Amino acid sequence: MKHRAKKTKFESFSQRFLIISMVIFAFGITYVRSLESSYNKVLQKTESEIKEIQDEIDYLELKKQGMASFSRLSNVASEKGYIYNNESVASSTAENPQQ
Fold it and tell me: Which chain positions lie within coiled-coil regions (predicted)?
């Protein structure tokens, strides 16, 4: 029969510390992955909302351009009893004119 060498206090402490560290590491990795997954879901939802709002802005821009067209202005003017003269209207393509 061979005798086992008796462990010192440092060796037993080191072994316990290693096991506890590995368990904490495993739980930590699981927690971080879970947290990352939940943040990804929130990010996808936010990106979806941004895309939806951007599409709405694009639609409103197109609608605004249609409302400001010269043919529409002519129709509205004639409905109100005015005469629309295209040459007397100044056109600007700038969103915010420079002063």
Answer: 36-63
